[in-house]
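Please check our next protein.
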Amino acid sequence: MYTIFPKIDEITCKEVVEKPTHINTCFNNGTVQNEEIFPIKNPNNLNRCPFRIGMATLFPFSEIPNKELLKNYDNVTEIKGFDYEILKIIAEYFNATLETHYIYRKEENPYKDLEFTDFIKNGSLDACAGGLYRIYGDLVEYSGVYVRQGVFWVYYAERAERSWQNLVSKLDDVYFFIIFYITYSIVWCLVSSFDGQAVSLITTLIHGWGALVGATSLQEPRTKKQKFLNLLYLIMSVYSSVYVSIQFYSFLTVRGPPQMFKTNSAVMESGRTAYLKNSSKYFITDERYTKYADHSADCVSFYNCAEKTLMYNGLTLLLQANFYIFQADSAVNDEARVLRATENMLTVYNEMLIRKDSPLVAKFQKVMKRLFEAGITGRLFTEAIGISVVAKAESANSNMITSSYSCQAGCSITLMQFAGIFYAWIFGCVISCLVFVIEILSRRVKVKEV
């Protein structure tokens, strides 16, 4: 069995046909030498001929300097980005020379500006890249998914400042000791009355509270029942002091993580203002999201939305790649100032476009699938963002969602941290002095009247 295999002429860069090639042998018993009867005839060696690529721009897929000065199909030589690195691998596989041209596609609304597709339909371009999606119907072929990234809510996050209100919230379990204190006072009065002793509930409450806070002693026990009751109450008072001391130490040295939102519902119910660009905010047909987006504040670009989120304690939507940059750049003292919701609002899948009648479609798709499954595209995606940037963002995020310790090996509690108590005491002294002066003046007035 013989057939003709076309090849690309390295001079004319056109398909040429050479002499027939033996591909298989049939035997008398009906068998063949090779199982593959109809081999693929599309050439995969371009003999360094041009592989014409249209490059749109979108970080981190493709970045072209001075793109504002370019028109569709202008030749470009200075390109960097994730897609360009993948295309260099594919061009090497096809033994081709990359010839890159600029194509305009609005980055923040890819459904507009489709003029560049004419270049791929008429054969001027072999493929298009630059963070494109499967949104062009059957006008072109697609490479298959080579990277996916989430679109999610991003919100401002900051640890709560230390305040006495926060301290009170940390001591919310102290009511257990209050219950035991009241119970002790009632039981003491009952036991004393049963033994025929004169007892005052007010006096018992005062002594019980003094013992609980370590200020006074308990009343003198006269019977074994009272001694046993006092012993248990003192043990409970020790535990109360330990509990309060630990909470004070924690309050003065440890700051908990900020408020975090895991679901999209929690984000939209948070009461914060969302900053979204009007021309592109209705990108999904979700009724609840649409109602929420109707009341969002406007911004001119994704980056402007992110800046307003940081300035005004708000929310916005970002692509995963842009989020890493924003989180790393806005970190303060190695702690993130913006966090993301755990749930994605949308997951987008990026694919390259291929000319529909190109003989390289099947092999282009096969190569892309292998790169994706081997994790090479994921690695190149991270490198295009910046390995150090991603690492810094992940580190800042991890530091922010855990408790913050002001010291690593023991903390010294200084009087400055208890300054509020002294201010309160001074304020009380001033009030007492003012009342004392008023009492003196009122007495003098009464004496004069007499």
User: Anything to note?
Assistant: Residues 419-449 form the longest helix (31 residues). The two ends are 139 Å apart (CA to CA). The chain has a mean pLDDT of 84.
